[in-house]
Amino acid sequence: MAKKKIYISGAISGNPSYRMQFLAKYRELEPFYTVLSPLFINAELSWKDFMHIDLAMIKVCDAIYMLKGWKESRGAKIEHCFAQMLGLEIIYENEDDIVKTCWNCIHKSINGGSDPCSTCENASAWELKNEN
C-alpha cells in the first residue's frame, strides 16, 4: 500500500530557523508519509513562483501539516485555505492554531470577487490572486 502524501506548511520568510524546523518535521513524518516540502525548492525563485509550485504540490497531497507559527506567514495561510478548499486532512502542530474556513470568502475569491469578507481569518488568499 502506498503511503499518503503530506505537505509541510509553515513560516519561511522572516523565520531564521525555518530550515531546521522544516527538516526536523520532514524526518519525523517521512517514515509514515511521502513528504512534500517547500524546503527543497530553488531559493532564487520569486515569492509568487514559490506559491504556484507550493499549491501544485498541495494539490497532489492527501494531507497538510501546519507547523507552529504558520498563522504568521502569508504563504502558509494561503496554503491552509487551499488545503481546506480541496478537503485535505489538516494536521496542526499546535492545537491553538486550528481555524475555521470562511467558505463565502473562498467562493468569492474563486469567482472573481474584489474583497474578502471582514471576518475571514484566511483572507490572505486574496493577496496571491491580486499579486502583480
How is the secondary structure organized here?
Layout: E1 4-9, H1 18-29, E2 33-36, H2 47-59, E3 63-66, H3 74-86, E4 89-92, H4 103-110, H5 125-129
Parallel strand pairs: 1-2, 1-3, 3-4
Quick structural summary:
It contains 5 helices and 4 strands. It is an alpha/beta fold.
Structural features, described:
The protein is of the alpha/beta class and 132 residues long. The chain has five helices and four strands. Helix 3 links the parallel strand 3 and strand 4 (89-92). Helix 2 (47-59) runs parallel beside helix 3. Mean pLDDT is 79; it is low at 118-132.
Give the strand order, joined by hyphens, for the main sheet: 2-1-3-4
CATH domain fold name: Rossmann fold
Count of DSSP E strands? 4
Q: Which CATH architecture is right?
A: 3-Layer(aba) Sandwich
Q: Which outline best applies?
A: globular
What portion of residues belong to β-strands? 5-15%
| Number of helices, where a helix is a run of at least 4 consecutive DSSP H or I residues | 5
Report mean pLDDT, rounded to a whole number. 79
What descriptive keywords fit this protein?
132 residues; alpha/beta; Rossmann fold; 4-stranded parallel beta sheet; 5 helices; globular
